[in-house]
Amino acid sequence: MLKLCHFPKCTDKIWYRPLRNITTKTPFDIDESDEEYKHFNTMYSEMFTSLDEKKVCNKDVSARSPRISDTDDLNNDLQDLFQIEQTPLSGVELRDKVKCSGRFIVRSLSHNPYYNLSLEDYIFRNTPVSKEVTNKIYPNHRLLFYINNKCAVIGKNQTIWQELYLSELKKQGYEVMRRLSGGGTVIHDMGNVNYSFITSRNEFHSNFFNELIVKWLLSYDKTLPVTLNKRSDILYSGKKCSGSAFKIAQGKAYHHGTMLVKSDLNKFHGLLKPKDISGIHWDSASVDSVRSDISNISLPSTDEFINICTDGFQNDFRGDNTSKIPIYYCDEINSINDEITTTMNTLNSDSWKYFSGPKFKVDFKDKTLSISCEKGVITESSISSLIGTDFKKLAEDEEFFTERIYNKPF
User: Fold this and answer.
1) In sequence order, which ranges of 236-347 are alpha helices (DSSP H)?
2) Is the dihedral of CA 361, 356, 166, 150 positive or negative?
3) Which of 284, 292, 248, 305 is nearest to 374 (CA)?
4) Can you tell me the distance from the alpha carbon of 245 to that of 257, in angstroms, rounded to the nearest whole number?
5) Rg (CA), the chain
6) What is the pLDDT of residues 331-364, one digit of tens each?
7) Within a 13 Å sphere around the CA of 394, how many CA atoms are in the beta-carbon half?
8) Which of 60, 173, 202, 391 gets the most CB atoms within 10 Å of its CB?
9) Tens digit of pLDDT for each residue in 204-243?
């Protein structure tokens, strides 16, 4: 007799995706005080806190659910067949998954950059590291994917007015953000995939994960002209389609990267400032962004890139485990907690965006004006009346800059 298949009742909380294309370490030790690798650590802020992992990980085995029925087995098989995704994790489920041992993939269903960067920070902070496994294969690899709405994201240690044409970004509807980590400035839109790979310090290699991505892409299509340069950037036909940044601290390593797939690159022009602008000289400790020719990679969709990497990760990181590495979904409505909310509020505050960058001095040579700033406030100036003024207010006064300082909006 044919058995009745019970599908979930709340169909408005089910996500569908197209069927995936199935594709058939050298670790080295880094002294974190070594100047040769110091730039890795300056790319990310300290994002670690002590955790009491036992409370969420040591669960009573007797409390586990009984074996699922044959009907449930059939329903699960049908879900796999039609690629029906479960609802996003709740805040409690997210906490338990992240703080316990195990490998998994997380895909954010949100396009809110404040949420996605906060989720990324939360997972990195709370992924456990056990000293007992530092000399073995790390059991807690995590891979996160997210796609942001239009935004410009500068590094923690950059000067926002040196990097971006803020008035043009505002005009075109781009959000402006300062992330919690270092590195250079990037532009995000719905055609750009962000990925984050978490591993152990012992297994870290600056090229490791991007080498895997290149391998997975070539397994998908051996004709793709993808290569890796010395900076661990992925190139497509010689042009940069992906950039990376790293963090090594307290037993963990973090590799963040982007992949341009369907980005509207024409609209990126005029948003980032060139390194040198005639008549303006910057003197600051700001991390320089690396200007490069960029290109989308030739793939049908952002989903296709995510699926290629998902299949590769599930295959290469399974090890001796016969179970498939799980995929979890998150969004800002369900998968939220106080820690993520606090980080979102920080990222969205003017005090973080504009008043937390490095000290700088800017000289307008042809107008003989000099301004020095600390924490976004003018501390010295050849025009004494400017001292104590917020540089943000000054920079937003287009009339001042066009008539008295420079012949175009700053």
Assistant:
1) 302-316, 338-347
2) positive
3) 284
4) 7
5) 24
6) 999 999 999 999 999 999 999 999 998 999 999 8
7) 20
8) 391
9) 777 888 999 999 999 999 999 999 988 778 999 999 999 8
